[in-house]
Amino acid sequence: MDDVFSGYHPAVNFLFFIGAIVLGMFLAHPLFLAVSMTSSVLYYLLLSGKGGLKFLRSMVLMALLLSLLNPLFNTRGGTVLFSYWKGRPFTLEALLYGIATGGVFFTIMLWFACYNKIMTGDKFLYLFGRRAPALSLLFSMVLRLVPNFKKKAAVIATARKCVGRAPDCGSSRQRLERGVEVLSVLTSWALEGAVETADSMKSRGYGSGMRSRFSIYRFRKMDRIVAAVMVLGLFFVLGAVFLGRAAITYTPAVIMPKLDWITVAGLAGYGVFLFLPSFLHIWEDVTWRILRSRI
Amino acid sequence: METTAKKKLGRGIIVAILVIVLLIPATLYLGTKLSGRQYYITSLLIILYTMLPFFLAFEKRRPQARDLVVLAVMCAIAVASRLVFIWAPHFKPMAAIIIIAGVAFGAEAGFLVGAMSAFVSQFFWGQGPWTPWQMFAFGMAGFLAGLFGRLGPVARKRIPLCIFGGLEVLLVVGTILNSSTLFTVVSHITMESAAAIYLAGLPVDAIQALATVLMLLAASGPMFEKLDRVKTKYGVMEG
């Protein structure tokens, strides 16, 4: 992962995603939605490159489907586009509302896809581990054990193959039975190991005092600057939201607040907030190319 | 040992009841004041309130190393079990493992194994707006399995366990997950749109339930044997 933003402090990462996802979920105003959609597409493509196009296409299809399906269940709205099936109306307002819902779904899915690339388990643990030492220990142990068990399961499956009981061959029934056998061996193996791990933890003093923690994250000057810019952006968006400039009603009639400088300021703040990680990514790319071209 | 376990559950239940009586109606009231995405946000808050007492009770108890590691192992097996059956894309044995853990170790442990497995599996398969719902749905699956396990030896017999597991996945887990879809993708919730979402989810839920039943049928016997063995040999998870 060569994204700059992911190298920032986890708290900064988390602030961004919480802001982007919560605001993205609430703001169905077309202009705000447009800002969120373009910034999420841009950042997702920067993060995943050409490999992200497939996911993007499937999400576009899902959003289109939602836009067209929603009006079938919502008949409110004054402008009837056409009627179908015993005169059930398909209204323009419901269609617009459907498109907005599809857009919200689309942008949320993309922000989550970015979140999955940036907010790794260790960052999450760093942010929330202090409050819940037992749960965070449980979480980190599970995170570590899953790949470990995956390997163990492969070892067991290979051994079973040697005695002619490969879990991926045979009829469905046989495969189920053989899969369960692998799982059963894995359970015995894992539980034996668990007791050993627990004894080892105990003999090293688990539970005898406060747990100490180690982390490699430091809140640097750039973290402070980026966080300050984000908070400033959020301030403008939330200002516009609380002054009612981002509110919209689609059905029964489309009612939008008038556009004025407060709306523009809110949109600008939203843009600064949401495009910041993409900006940092591109900025780094450009400086790197310039520096390299000088060599 | 039985009495201490009951006492612990009792304290958790008192907190849970307080939450249900005070916070949930307050949130529902506030939800009616919101417009737009009120369904998603209200239900999300309620889910978080419901899960909180379980997590707090676990923290408060300062779990022993053995209990902690065995819980971690059960969660990791539940997450990794899907990889053992990778050849069957829709065959997810996670719910069955969670139910077995719930019946063997009790309601509180069942909830933790369910919620934690769902949470960690999201780190491998991707987070989304559904993450809290998945945690809640599988946590409840483990919790109810723990209550079912209190019936005694009957709960471990194959036929009652399979019936319980199948119904639970179909009715509890399926309904919770379909509700999350409903709140995420539908702009205007009516009887019709709700019915459409629940009906669309039914085939998937049915496959899940079938997978759970098959898994319980084939794996519950040996799994119980192993978990009981650790319990009696090392005194793990006995309060």
Describe this structure in words.
- The complex is a heterodimer of chains A (295) and B (239).
- Chain A has 295 residues and is mainly α.
- Chain A folds into 2 domains: 5-124 and 221-294, no CATH class; 133-203.
- Chain A has helices at 10-26, 30-48, 53-73, 92-118, 121-128, 133-162, 172-203, 221-242, 261-294; strands spanning 80-84, 88-91.
- In chain A, strand 1 (80-84) and strand 2 form a beta hairpin.
- Chain A is extended and about 70 Å long.
- With 239 residues, chain B is mainly alpha-helical.
- Chain B folds into 2 domains: 1-62; 64-234, Orthogonal Bundle (Arp2/3 complex 21 kDa subunit ARPC3).
- In chain B, 82% of the residues lie in helices and 0% in strands.
- Chain B has helices spanning 2-33, 38-60, 65-84, 94-105, 107-125, 131-149, 158-185, 191-234.
Entry summary:
With 295 residues, chain A is mainly alpha-helical. In chain A, 71% of the residues lie in helices and 3% in strands. In chain A, helix 1 (10-26) runs antiparallel to helix 4 (92-118), helix 3 (53-73) packs antiparallel against helix 4 (92-118) and helix 6 crosses helix 7.
Task: Output the keywords.
heterodimer; A: 295 residues; mainly alpha; 2 domains; two-stranded antiparallel ribbon; 71% helix; 3% strand; extended; B: 239 residues; Arp2/3 complex 21 kDa subunit ARPC3; globular; disordered N terminus
Helix content of chain B: over 70%
Q: Number of helical runs of chain B?
A: 8
Runs of chain A in which pLDDT lies below 50 for 5 or more consecutive residues are none
CATH class division of the largest domain in chain B: Mainly Alpha
How many β strands of chain A by DSSP? Answer: 2
Enumerate how many helices of chain A there are, as a single number: 9
User: In the CATH hierarchy, what is the architecture of the largest domain in chain B at level 2?
Assistant: Orthogonal Bundle
| Helix vs. strand class of chain B | mainly alpha
Cα gyration radius of chain A (Å): 26 Å
Termini separation of chain B (Å)?
6 Å
Tell me about the biggest sheet of chain B?
Answer: none
Average pLDDT taken over every residue of chain A = 90
How would the global form of chain A be characterised?
extended
- Here the CATH topology of the largest domain in chain B equals Arp2/3 complex 21 kDa subunit ARPC3
The overall number of domains of chain B is: 2
Strand order, biggest sheet of chain A? 1-2
The largest pleated sheet of chain A is described as: 2 strands, antiparallel
**What is the residue-averaged pLDDT of chain B?**
85
